[in-house]
Specification:
The protein has eleven helices and no strands. By secondary structure, it is an all-alpha fold. The longest helix has 31 residues.
Length: 260
């Protein structure tokens, strides 16, 4: 049998149905928040960069620039301070990679089974790497907000709540993986190198994989869905949008061809 992963391992059908409902609500809130953001941008109420854009033009522009070299390398943040650019890359692209991994797993579960064998092993290793990078970026950011005086003075409750929620998601994500590996002990678990470490740690603590999995999974999923629903309404949305709006401002007011 090819190496793969069962999506809802140890999670009851009732919990799965509850998850579907919560995920639908979270997605609707996220989409509505994004629509509000786009309305403000295209009407010029949040700056002039996108005034006059149609919604479809804005979406095309945003996607094109989100995956541009400038955005991928966090050029704007690096120009302000190297550690800020590094921190942004670790957090944003770690998060986005994990989100993409979840989307791929959803496609695998519901539509076509392709995360099997070597493909799954590479997938698992890359997601562990992305989670590890996210964790490092979060620890750097949280450390700065507690230890650097000028940063601490400008930090408010929303900043800490967002960062600690992301940290909780990252830690519980690895805990879920560790509990599953602890119970199943697959021969391929070495590819999930952080998950394997989590499994060893949980084993040393005397954890029971099957008993704890559903509880930790529920806490993890709840935090993820709350974060997704709240993201468009929070000031941390700028982590994803600032590179795009800066590129638009440069095109429109810097003499580039983006002026309309």
């Amino acid at each position: 049998m090819a190496v793969t992963r069962e999506v809802f391992w140890s999670v009851s059908k009732d919990m799965q149905y509850l998850f579907y409902g919560a995920a639908a609500l979270s997605t609707l809130l996220f989409l509505y928040g994004m629509w509000r953001r786009m309305s403000l941008w295209t009407k010029g109420r949040a700056g002039r960069e996108f005034r006059g854009y149609r919604t479809q033009d804005f979406l095309i522009y945003a996607l094109r620039n989100l995956f541009s070299r400038e955005c991928l390398s966090a050029r704007r943040s690096f120009s302000l301070a190297g550690y800020r650019g590094l921190m942004l890359i670790l957090i944003v692209w770690g998060f986005l990679t994990l989100f993409a991994g979840t989307a791929l797993l959803t496609i695998h579960h519901y539509f076509t089974h392709f995360l099997e064998g070597r493909v799954y092993l590479i997938y698992s290793m890359l997601l562990d790497l992305a989670g590890g990078l996210l964790l490092i970026g979060l620890l750097i950011s949280i450390g700065r907000r507690h230890l650097v005086a000028e940063v601490r003075q400008s930090t408010d409750l929303e900043d800490l709540l967002f960062l600690y929620t992301l940290l909780f998601i990252a830690i519980t994500g690895f805990a879920i993986e560790g509990l599953r590996l602890l119970e199943l002990s697959p021969a391929s678990m070495d590819y999930s190198f952080i998950g394997a470490f989590a499994a060893a740690l949980l084993r040393a603590l005397g954890a029971n994989g099957a008993e704890a999995y559903t509880l930790v999974w529920s806490l993890h999923v709840t935090a993820v869905l709350i974060l997704i629903a709240a993201l468009p309404y929070s000031k941390f949305f700028h982590m994803f949008s600032s590179q795009i709006t800066t590129a638009a401002a440069r095109e429109r007011y810097g003499g580039a061809s983006g002026d309309r």
